Inverse folding.
């Protein structure tokens, strides 16, 4: 089986860049883990390493979602992409911007005073705001890249005007994502207002727009890997994404408990964010129900990753979030390692596995592969997933010790971190290496998939049909 | 329900929730200034210093940030100004075990940053961070404490110093201070720390009465 429209192959450029950044992200993550044990380990300080770890994550997920969109939209619109040169330009513009930002971070790590000059209202190298550290000039370039990307996809849809539910929802999610970048692009004198608008970006991305995109892509993958009927998967997709936004938009309130905002957010945030796991549970149920109903699997590895994504989205984003979302609990856990644990499992389940499953669903088709060995894909999955579960358990343990000793007993932050939590940091770093092994297996698989002859009788052979 | 009806429910329902969110945002924006002190130019400059050095890359503030270093929301209530300034400009000269590197923060930048940190400590955060429950429970039994022990609590010495595993790590551990220092040293050091430890960031406690200083010194001597 091969692609229906030649232009869908542009997705592969984005996937390749995403996969390489994934490797960088995890390698840098291990340096950060070691700095919890030896703060002076490595020439760059923790703040720079952490910025690289998280920015690489956000960028590779976005780039991966862009690749997925370039694949899905022509398929759904039943036409070639509006402009391939524009997509290529957008790809290279993104690569250049991201590279410049990374070089800027490294330079600032070596010479902190280099960030003294300001340009468009922020430091020239670093805005100094968590997750959105990229300086303003880079924000503007990134926004332009996203606008070009959206125009290209909308124009493709307009060619045939086939507004399917999946691509309508996907593009709605992406447009919402682009719009929600704006609240992070202006300066406020008040740190309270700064954090208030900052959460518009961070929360409405990961617990809003991105989950809408995940809903649309899950529907697409169930349709492709199981030949499931469109009207059925789209019906449940609407239920899921509607519940995501009905709970998620006002769920932003769980970030407004303690930052200087009025107390009514304790009620709004507590109630709505407690409901946020429901749509994620519906997605799990949807994935299982569809799999049982349509037993002919056209791409086993793709389906395996898609179902795993649904499960770990619920566990990581849903369960690990809801345990500390009520204000009564959050009062004690806010700002502790509990949040870090939630962040790791949520991003792995909700978005890392989403992009990886989209890669496994589309890449064999892009490369025109009829059959490939799924052996490395499964190996990579278990190395990554088991390591991630233990990373999350160790950080959760550290968070519980921190909450008890620092918040309840009143011990000093540094004493708890360096003495009582030391073993958690050591185990976390070890499991981090396990995760890196999984990623390395995945990256090798990505580059070799369909490019090596398949041994006859390989038990993990995955046939691409349909 | 048909797919079309579900689509409309998704689109218009989400829009409805977003409108509610925007209304709440407008209401919140109107209330924020009353929940925090006025922002002076110094505070604003301090916030810019905070961004310039990417402080959030290690610390948290209002509980949000990087969880690698202590939360800064109430730091100006916990540590004396002189200490903060000296630490910001050269952390390891104050506390050799400090993880924080020397960034080249100037004296003026440090003043602005401290003004910003003082501002944020006065923001109404709905009671966050909560006072440690168990530490409060211990304080209730204060009736049995010696006068020196009570002073130690009142002056919040444990913000910087550790005693039997409880307290800060920025100043030296006092668990066995009585076997390291004699009475004259401790008493003199309270009055003028820098005369005894040249790099000391501890403020002088010369404003205490001679009686109080002696009670505190008695307590220190007893720690062997």
């Amino acid at each position: 089986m091969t692609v229906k429209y030649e232009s869908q192959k542009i997705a592969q450029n984005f996937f390749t860049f995403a996969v390489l950044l994934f490797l960088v992200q995890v390698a840098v993550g291990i340096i950060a883990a070691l700095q919890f044990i030896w703060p002076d380990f490595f020439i760059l300080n923790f703040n720079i390493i952490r910025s690289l770890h998280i920015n690489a994550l956000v960028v590779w997920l976005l780039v991966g979602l862009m690749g997925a969109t370039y694949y899905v939209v022509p398929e759904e619109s039943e036409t070639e992409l509006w402009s391939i040169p524009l997509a290529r330009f957008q790809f290279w513009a993104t690569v250049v911007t991201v590279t410049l930002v990374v070089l800027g971070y490294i330079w600032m790590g070596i010479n902190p005073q280099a960030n003294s000059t300001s340009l468009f209202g922020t430091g020239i190298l670093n805005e100094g705001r968590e997750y959105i550290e990229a300086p303003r000039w880079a924000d503007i370039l990134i926004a332009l890249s996203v606008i070009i990307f959206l125009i290209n996809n909308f124009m493709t849809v307009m060619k045939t005007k086939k507004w399917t539910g999946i691509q309508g929802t996907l593009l709605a999610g992406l447009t919402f994502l682009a719009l929600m970048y704006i609240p992070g692009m202006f300066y406020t004198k008040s740190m309270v207002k700064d954090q208030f608008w900052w959460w518009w970006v961070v929360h409405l991305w990961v617990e809003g727009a991105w989950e809408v995109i995940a809903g649309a892509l899950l529907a697409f993958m169930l349709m492709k890997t199981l030949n499931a009927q469109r009207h059925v998967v789209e019906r449940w997709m609407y239920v899921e994404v509607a519940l995501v936004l009905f709970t998620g938009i006002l769920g932003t309130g769980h970030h407004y408990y303690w930052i200087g905002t009025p107390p009514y957010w304790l009620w709004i945030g507590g109630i709505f964010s407690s409901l946020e796991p429901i749509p994620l549970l519906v997605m799990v149920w949807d994935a299982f129900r569809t799999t049982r109903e349509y037993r002919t699997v056209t791409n086993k590895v793709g389906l395996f990753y898609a179902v795993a994504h649904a499960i770990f989205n619920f566990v990581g984003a849903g369960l690990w979030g809801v345990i500390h979302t009520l204000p009564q609990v959050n009062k004690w856990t806010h700002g502790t390692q509990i949040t870090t644990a939630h962040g790791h499992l949520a991003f792995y389940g909700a978005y890392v596995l989403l992009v990886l499953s989209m890669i496994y669903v589309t890449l064999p088709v892009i490369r025109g592969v009829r059959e490939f060995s799924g052996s490395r894909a499964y190996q990579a999955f278990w190395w990554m997933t088991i390591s991630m579960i233990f990373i999350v358990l160790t950080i959760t343990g550290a968070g519980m010790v921190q909450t008890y000793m620092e918040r309840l007993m009143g011990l000093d932050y540094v004493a708890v971190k360096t003495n009582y939590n030391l073993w958690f940091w050591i185990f976390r770093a070890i499991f981090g290496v396990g995760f890196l092994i999984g990623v390395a297996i995945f990256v090798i698989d990505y580059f070799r998939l369909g490019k090596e002859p398949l041994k006859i009788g390989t038990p993990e052979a995955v046939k691409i049909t349909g | 329900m048909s797919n079309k009806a579900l689509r409309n429910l998704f689109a218009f329902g989400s829009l409805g929730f977003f409108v509610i969110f925007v209304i709440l945002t407008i209401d919140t924006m109107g209330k924020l200034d009353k929940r925090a002190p006025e922002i002076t130019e110094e505070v604003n400059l301090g916030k810019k210093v905070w961004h310039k050095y990417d402080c959030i890359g290690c610390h948290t503030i209002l509980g949000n940030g990087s969880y690698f270093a202590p939360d800064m929301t109430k730091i100006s209530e916990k540590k004396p100004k002189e200490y903060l300034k000296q630490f910001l400009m050269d952390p390891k000269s104050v506390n050799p075990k400090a993880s924080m590197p020397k960034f080249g923060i100037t004296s003026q930048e440090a003043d602005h940053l401290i003004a910003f940190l003082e501002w944020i400590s006065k923001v109404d955060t709905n009671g966050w961070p909560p006072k440690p429950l168990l530490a409060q429970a211990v304080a209730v039994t204060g009736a049995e404490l010696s006068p020196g022990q009570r002073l130690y609590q009142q002056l919040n010495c444990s913000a910087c110093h550790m005693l039997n595993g409880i307290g800060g790590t920025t100043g030296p551990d006092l668990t066995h201070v009585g076997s390291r220092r004699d009475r004259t040293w401790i008493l003199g050091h309270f009055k003028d720390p820098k005369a005894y430890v040249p790099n000391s960031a501890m403020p002088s406690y010369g404003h205490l009465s001679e009686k109080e200083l002696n009670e505190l010194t008695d307590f220190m001597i007893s720690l062997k």
